C-alpha cells in the first residue's frame, strides 16, 4: 500500500507525510487541511479493514472449495459438469426452465460462484420448487447474480491496483491543489467503502455455503432443502442486497462525517462509478 500513498503525493506535487502539520500548511487553510487528514485517515482505515476481511475470505474460499468437492463426491459426482448433466437429464418443464435461467446468471469463474452453482444445481434435483421460488422472487438476480455483474472483479480490483492512493498531507501548496487532493481522496474513500461492504457481503454468503456443504443433514430431503433454499437463502438475499448497493456506502459515509462533525465544504458531490451501478 505504501507505493499507492507515494503515488498520490507525487501526483499532487506534495511532500511525503510525517512532517509537522503546522509546518506544512498555510494557516488560512485549516479546514481544508483537516478535511484532507480526515479523508486520509478514513481511506487507511478502510484499507486495513479490507485486508483483514480479505484474509478471512481467502481462507473461506479454500475451505468451501474442499467441502464442496467432498459434498459432490458423496453424492456420486466427480465435478460440477457431472452435476449439471444430471440436472439436465432429470429436470423437465418449468424446473428445467428455471435451471436454465439460473445457469445464465452464474459464470462459475470463482469458488464463490461454483459453490452457489453446486447448491442450486443440487436443489434443482431434490427440491425444484424451491429453485423456482428463488427465480420468482429475483434472488438469482440479487446476490446470486452479483458475480455475473462483476462482483468478484470488483473485489479483486483493489488488490490488483495495490490499493487506492490515500495520502494528501501537503506543505506549501495552493488551495487549488488542496481541493484537488480532497476530491481524489473523497472518490477513493467511496470506492473503498463500497469494496469493504461488498466483500463483507460475499463473506457472509461464503459462511452460508460452508455450512451447507459441511452439514449433510437434510440435503437429500425435499422439504428440508426447500426450507433452506426457499427461506434461508431468500432471507440472506433480502438482508444483504441493501449492503451491496453503492447507495449504502454513500449513506454510511454521510453518517460517518456527520457523526464526526467533519467540515465538508470542499467535498465534491457523490457520484457512483459506473462499475458499481446495478
Shape: elongated
Q: Please report which band the strand proportion falls in: under 5%, 5-15%, 15-25%, 25-35%, 35-45% or over 45%.
A: under 5%
Look at the structure and give the mean pLDDT: 76
Instruction: Point out poorly predicted stretches.
Output: 5-10, 12-25, 144-173
How many H/I helices?
12
Q: How can the largest sheet be summarized? A: none
How many E-type strands?
0
Could you write a compact summary of the structure shown?
The chain has helices spanning 2-12, 21-24, 30-74, 80-90, 93-105, 111-126, 128-136, 143-146, 151-160, 175-214, 222-244, 246-260. It has 278 residues and is mostly helical. The chain crosses the membrane at residues 115-140, 146-170.
Description of the structure:
It is a single chain. The chain has 278 residues and is mostly helical. It has one domain (2-276). It has helices at 2-12, 21-24, 30-74, 80-90, 93-105, 111-126, 128-136, 143-146, 151-160, 175-214, 222-244, 246-260. Helix 3 packs across helix 6, helix 7 packs parallel to helix 11 and helix 9 packs across helix 10. The longest helix is centred in the N-terminal third of the chain and has 45 residues, at 30-74. The chain crosses the membrane at residues 115-140, 146-170. Keywords: Membrane, Transmembrane, Transmembrane helix.
What keywords describe this structure?
278 residues; transmembrane helix; membrane; 12 helices; mainly alpha
Outline the fold blueprint.
Layout (H helix, E strand, L loop, with lengths): L1 H11 L8 H4 L5 H45 L5 H11 L2 H13 L5 H16 L1 H9 L6 H4 L4 H10 L14 H40 L7 H23 L1 H15 L18
Keywords: Membrane, Transmembrane, Transmembrane helix
